[in-house]
From TrEMBL:
This is Protein translocase subunit SecE. InterPro entries: Prot_translocase_SecE_dom_sf, Translocase_Sec61-g, Translocase_SecE/Sec61-g. The gene is secE. It is found in: Cell membrane; Endomembrane system. The chain crosses the membrane at residues 28-53.
Length: 57
């Protein structure tokens, strides 16, 4: 493992990185929130179906 090379790669990435604008951040947060809600709803749906079926939870 070449530590000097790894550190220079990390520094190069940090120099290229920038903070997102408020518009970009809010769009990413909205999409991530929609994904969380979708996965939660899907889990609830599976739970509801398993509760109704015989031998469910």
């Amino acid at each position: 493992m070449d530590v000097k090379y790894d550190l220079s790669a990390y520094v190069r990435v940090l120099k290229m990185a920038s903070t997102p604008s408020w518009e970009e951040f809010s769009q990413v947060a909205l999409i991530a929130g929609a994904g969380v809600i979708l996965v939660g709803f899907l889990g609830f749906l599976i739970f509801a179906v398993m509760s109704v079926l015989p031998g469910g939870v």
